[in-house]
Amino acid sequence: MTALIDAHLHLWDPRRFTYPWLADEPALNRPFGPAALDTGGHRLTGAVFVEAGRAAGQARDELRWVEEVAAGWPVLLGAVAHADLERGREISAHLRQLAAMPLVRGVRRNLQDEPPGFATSAGHIDGVRALAGYGFTADLCVRHSQLPEITELVALVPQVTFVLDHLGKPPVRSGERDPWREQLRRLAGLPNVVCKLSGLTTEADLARWRPGDVLPYLRDALAEFGPDRCLFGGDWPVATLATTYARWVDVVLEALAGCSAADRGQVLAGTATAVYRLPAG
Hints:
Layout: E1 3-9, E2 43-50, H1 59-72, E3 76-82, H2 92-99, E4 104-108, H3 122-130, E5 137-140, H4 147-156, E6 162-164, H5 180-188, E7 193-197, H6 211-225, E8 230-232, H7 245-255, H8 261-275
Parallel strand pairs: 1-2, 2-3, 3-4, 4-5, 5-6, 6-7, 7-8
Helix pairs in contact: 4-5, 5-6, 6-7
């Protein structure tokens, strides 16, 4: 049994909120709460909720619901909220509201479907800079083709800690590692960014992926960022399209097989605790 902190966990309830993207994912279009989470014997000592793409205008209500969930599930130690960072300095009032919510540790403005130039637009950069005043991190959900652009963003805002979700979604299905690997290396060269070991199985062949398909990418991320800048993420329940929770934990543990116990502890819990300023579990 492995004890870990999951730095990337989703929860949702389509009966309470609207999630437009779930219309295309019938297997996921149902409530997912703590009771549905099967860790396969691995012990969660903490978890960070990450915004789940609910409809515009429901973000604050989603967070209030997550606070209700956390009241009955002490494992939930933090939350990454949605904010329209492209609003620039106008987002400050919203960030003040988020700062008054004890669970919120950071913000994610999902960028993976935005056009080129969005992440480095003046408004978005100003909105990201505003996060520093509240100590919030900025999660980055992007596709691998966007890595050069978000590297520019990270360099422009050194006062904010960025968290790269899902290794930047490398092209696992095709097995290509370049230019993703070189782009990841350039991003990792900036000190204010860390990398979640998460989300790779849904970038692979959902039905037929094997550990050998994803291990090279995990090992590349560990080599470029180092264990003290990598953190475990289960990406549950999205990952259930391709894997069980326990199987993903086992793959990450295999990637960490050559690491010291201290380094494994960093990836499985320590980095998440530091980056998201989590309380003792």
